[in-house]
Here is the input.
Amino acid sequence: MEIRRFRPEDAQETAQVVITTLRVSNSKDYPPEYIDYNVASHSPEVLLKRAEEGHMYVVCDGSRIVGCGAIAPYWGSETESILLTIFVLPEYQGKGVGRLIIETLEQDEYFLRADRIEIPASITGVEFYKKMGYGYKNGIEELEDGVMYRMEKFRGR
Here is the structure.
């Protein structure tokens, strides 16, 4: 497995990783309409824009992209960042790919300059993020709009 920065030519394959993961893994926790909304909001064009606004990475098994993740400034902040678009193909889950993505994002300059890092966590991913040291934002374990948890980590704590 190799992790590297996302390149524009990765957009189509990375979007397919997201779509597959949403339809297989996240569909256990969400209704079809929400999955469809998320599929539409992770098009190749959206991923290209996300990569321009922050730093996006892909995990490759040989020439195949099997996971992705991004980090960006949180609303333009110099002291807060946000982790986004963290997806691992279902057949690669539980094999350290997600951990590799988080560890890479936590070495990125946007992480290292931040005091606080936030993750909009799906119901599906919340337990994984807890294992990676993230807690509920302000200690509040509550779904926002019934669909995601706000989680955070403070650097140096």
About this structure: The mean pLDDT is 96. The chain is about 35% helix and 30% strand. The longest strand covers residues 64-73. Residues 11 and 46 are 9 Å apart (CA to CA).
